[in-house]
């Protein structure tokens, strides 16, 4: 089934909302895509006719199995391109999202599979998000926000929730990237800010908001 770029963007956005909030409402989708609820309703009717979503007014939008399959393939392409741009072309992790947004709409599956093979089938993208394999399977990982991690335990950065360029640049300036090892030294009761220490660095403070957007694992655990 051939989909337009707009249709693919909607399907991917619905997938994101379903995973984060269990359902995709018209208003939430309009906010995410920066469009009007009326435009969402129009697109919902088109996608429903193609049997990619089920849609009922006031109850939101839900991907059908076919819609979910399309969404996962779009996400696979997006995350593979992010890996390519960072690992092979030297882009920063704060620079690749919008480029991959364009490249993900190249639908030639031969290109996608050759790209995956060239990259040696990475399991995660530069932001720590899992990359679906060719069958659509997604590897799950166990991680928690840094804001909820135990104090003085060895931790490893496993991903970021907010992938805005401004946050990614901020983290990079602080020396925080995927795989960075750190410990929480103290959580300040007043505002929930955290004093943390990276290996071979002096301690510094992160706000609760920033810490809440960093995913970590106990070091040595998958």
Task: Please tag this protein with its features.
222 residues; SH3 type barrels; Arc Repressor Mutant, subunit A; six-stranded antiparallel β-sheet; two-stranded antiparallel sheet; 8 strands; 16% strand; alpha+beta; 3 domains; 41% helix
Give an overview in words:
This protein has three domains: 5-63, Arc Repressor Mutant, subunit A; 81-140, Arc Repressor Mutant, subunit A (Orthogonal Bundle), CATH 1.10.10.10; 144-218, SH3 type barrels (Roll), CATH 2.30.30. Helix content is 41%, strand content 16%. It contains eight helices and eight strands; from the N terminus they run H-H-H-E-E-H-H-H-E-E-H-E-E-E-H-E. The chain has helices spanning 5-21, 26-33, 37-49, 65-87, 97-103, 109-118, 165-173, 208-212; strands at 53-56, 60-63, 144-145, 155-160, 181-187, 194-198, 204-206, 214-218. The strands form two sheets. Strands 3-8-4-5-6-7 form a six-stranded antiparallel beta sheet. A two-stranded antiparallel ribbon has the order 1-2. Helix 1 (5-21) packs across helix 2, helix 1 crosses helix 4 (65-87) and helix 2 (26-33) packs across helix 3 (37-49). The model has no long low-confidence stretch (mean pLDDT 93).
